[in-house]
Amino acid sequence: MNILDRIIADKYKEVALRKSIIPVRQLENSVLFDREGNSLAEALRNSTTGIIAEHKRRSPSKSVINQKVSVQDVAVGYENAGVCGMSVLTDGKYFGGSLDDLLLARASVKMPLLRKEFIIDEYQLLEAKAYGADVVLLIAAVLSRDEIKTLSEFAKKLSLDVLLEVHNLEELEKSIMPSLDMLGVNNRNLKTFDVSIDVSKKLSQHIPDDFVKVSESGISNIEAIKELQPYGYKGFLIGENFMKTENPGPSAVEFIKALQR
Ligand SMILES: O=P(O)(O)OC[C@@H](O)[C@@H](O)c1c[nH]c2ccccc12
């Protein structure tokens, strides 16, 4: 079993457990459930920098990244830096995140928040809504076309934006459908952890123009962004590069300033 298979096997168990503890109607009755979402796709379309900054404490590829900063401070710092949105890892076992991180970020900022999670069940979309997300990630590597369709259509009903993530042409071709807002190319292979922005360059020509194109992972300098912009990318998802510093917010400020120069 590769790491992705392990994460997904654990995720099925976790979701079954969560469902048995918190019923759907409790999620639906939560204060945030009817909050009007903020569109990340819209923010990216109107931006010249397009940074989506991530809160990530640790990962299977890097182990510890940053266990010290508070998610509220990171959220406020990112918002002050002028990012288009923030990605909050909510997986606990492999990434050290939680739904409470999402809630605390929501309480601190207005910008669009992405629930960064391995989504396999509609229940997790209800959770995303109840904990204040505006956007959800769907990962083509672990979902069939039918699952992508069902999950993305349900997300749209909840007025969540959908970012669909692919890593190769086969995943991209099986995933194209109108219920997606953004197409993300993950430069990191989730099975081997190999990273290269060439993956984004290669796949860009196959992404229809109606989707906002996002390049994800392994972006550690503004040169990478300048290289990717001519390929039509409007969004850039950056985690480690900010999180590995003592103060992710100010790091994002510097990065965005440099990008605007
Ligand atoms: O820290 P990086 O290399 O900047 O990458 C951020 C983000 O793209 C990465 O965390 C990610 C992309 N897709 C995922 C799916 C699950 C978990 C994590 C991810």
Quick description:
The chain has helices at 3-21, 24-28, 40-45, 71-81, 99-108, 122-130, 145-157, 169-175, 198-204, 222-228, 240-243, 248-260, and strands at 51-55, 58-59, 63-64, 85-89, 113-116, 135-139, 161-166, 182-186, 212-216, 235-238. It has a single domain (3-260), classed as Aldolase class I (TIM Barrel, Alpha-Beta Barrel), CATH 3.20.20.70. It is an alpha/beta fold and 261 residues long.
User: Could you say what the CATH topology is called?
Assistant: TIM Barrel
Return Rg in Å: 17 Å
Query: Which molecules other than protein and nucleic acid are bound?
Result: indole-3-glycerol phosphate
How would you name the CATH homologous superfamily?
Aldolase class I
Total number of domains: 1
Order of helices and strands: HHHEEEHEHEHEHEHEHEHEHH
Distance between the termini: 46 Å
What's the CATH class label? Alpha Beta
Low-confidence stretches: none
Discrete helix count:
12
Instruction: Trace the largest sheet across and list its strands.
Output: 1-4-5-6-7-8-9-10
The major sheet is characterized as: 8 strands, parallel, barrel
The proportion of strand residues reads 15-25%
Class inferred from helices and paired strands: alpha/beta
Mean pLDDT: 97
Described by the principal axes of the CA atoms, the overall outline is: globular
Relative helix content: 40-55%
